[in-house]
Structures are given as C-alpha cells and as structure tokens.
Amino acid sequence: MPAASDGAGLYAEYCAACHGAGGRGDGPLARAMSKPPKDLTLLALRHGDTFPTARVLNMVDGYARSDLDGPGMPEFGELLAGDLVPYDSGDGIATPTPRRMVAIVEYLRTIQQTR
C-alpha cells in the first residue's frame, strides 16, 4: 500500500499548480481560472467529518467529472498507469486501484482540517 508521503510528491507534481502547495485552492494558476479550485483541506468537514474516499478517488480518476460543468480538472492519464494495489474506498471491498492514485488520495486524507 502506498504511503501518504508517496502522494505528497505526486500532489506537488499534478495538483499544487491549481490547488496550492497546502491544498487550499490558492495555487499559482488559480487566479486565472473561471471556476476556482476547491480547498482540498475541507473535504472531510464538508462531508460530516468523514473523508469521502470514493468521491475523491472518482474526482482524481475523472469518473465523477463532466464537461457540462465547464472547465475543470484536467485528465491525469499518467496516474492510471503502473501497478495496481487492493484498495478499499469505503465500501468494504478491496478493488485493484492504480498505486499512484491511492497515494494521492491518502496524502489528501492527511491534510484535512478538523473542527
């Protein structure tokens, strides 16, 4: 299983330009965007103090995104490449999931604000 520390580097490479180094939606590209990036440190607070693992995974892999909402997150095909690890996204079933995606999701879990 990838560690959150593995995801920190991937986050810096794929996410920080828009979401900011700390995940607050204040990256260097954020001001130029018509729809501001989400503050990723509030994911758990917005979901009843529970980190929405499956939802976050679906946003990263593109499954939950739609062009109907306007410009949003880019495709991250490289994250889908590589080996798979069994990962339970909250439904009790360990599903083969790209290691790099799991690493980013686990990193995002570590930067959540609490009440």
From TrEMBL:
InterPro entries: Cyt_c-like_dom (IPR009056), Cyt_c-like_dom_sf (IPR036909)
A Pfam family matched in the record: Cytochrome_CBB3
Domain of life, per lineage: Bacteria
Keyword match Metal-binding: yes
GO MF entries: electron transfer activity; heme binding; metal ion binding
Keywords: Heme, Iron, Metal-binding
Transmembrane spans: none
Domain Cytochrome c: 2-112
Protein name from the UniProt record: Cytochrome C
Lineage, broadest ranks: Bacteria, Pseudomonadati, Pseudomonadota, Alphaproteobacteria, Rhodobacterales
